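task queued by scheduler; priority normal; single chain, no ligands, no partner chains; default sampling; output format set to structure tokens
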Amino acid sequence: MKLRRCAVLYMESREKLSIDWRTVLAGGSALAATTQWLALAPHLDQELAVTAEELAALGGLSHTVWTTCAEAEQRYGEATIASLLKQGLLIGDSPEHADAQARDDTLRATHWRPLSALTHTFGRWREVSSDNGMEAPSFQALLEMFGEPPPPTLDLPAEGALKLPAVRSGLLDEQLFKRYTGRNFDLQASIPLAVAARLLQRTFGAQEVRMVGPHASVLKKTSPSGGGLHPVEAFVLAQRVDGVTPGLYHYHPIEHELRPVRTMDSAAAAELAKQMLADQHWLADAPLQVVMVARMERSFWKYRNHQKAYRALALDTGHLSQTFYLLAAEAGLPAFVTAAINDVDIEQELGLDHLRHAVVAICGCGPARGGARSMVELRYGETDAL
């Protein structure tokens, strides 16, 4: 059998502090530190503790050149090599190691930049809820916890500053000023199908399909995209959209249709919204959510192992969300976008591989609830945040 190290691997040292009472009683330092090495491998999607012997082997074996197992065992010991193969940090070419090799091959074939693969994989959430970390503190609570924030803008020296002319009104002003993040949605209200259709088509739909080769095409949309590739897909969770059975759908940007992934009853759709949105009920209450999923293969086809490719995907999602906001404002609806989501749970729900697809953010909208607001909303022209 031959083996090599996995394609992307980072080692992190972590210290665990404890009090050494024996040393303290003898008059020495109170704290003792124990260092542990953790292997971070995106293809495995988990942190793995390694020994000093395993660390040496991982540092000495190539991730491109195959080595015979016998040679590796001679250099680093049979037990060390067996442990690393079992963990999947070393990739063997025998059938018993086929699963780890397939995951490693997927990572290699997708052309990830190693640091981006690390950031993406270990920045994802799973099963985060209000019970284990998701909070929504008010501005007042933040002030009490952290004190005054940094100033809202840089204030460079004004010497030589050019005073700009007054701004004239424009066609976009109404939507720009009406746009705000909604956190108080009406649980009884729904969105008309025609409104949902316009939101989806004008934000995520193809306004034009242009052929750039015999079997290759690019889409023209209302938002910019890195390399003109538009790798972000829209998966819709419809809770209360007139004429649409509650459930998960993929929005096809060319055919302008919702293709069902899984339909469900209203209670299940509401529960799924809360799960996806990490228990943020103030966003899950909206009748329509859109999960924005980046297809890495589409973007990395051009930007292979590129330092800026992953950042461009985040920018793409930001552009789309602002377009969605403005269209929602046009329809008289508050909207939202958030990256505080349970990525792993969404991947499992949609059957996605995190090495091929990045669940970046969720946006949504719906009618505002009347009466007093319970959550912070910064509306233009209001003097109070609530």
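post-processing summary
- The chain is about 35% helix and 25% strand.
- The radius of gyration is 26 Å.
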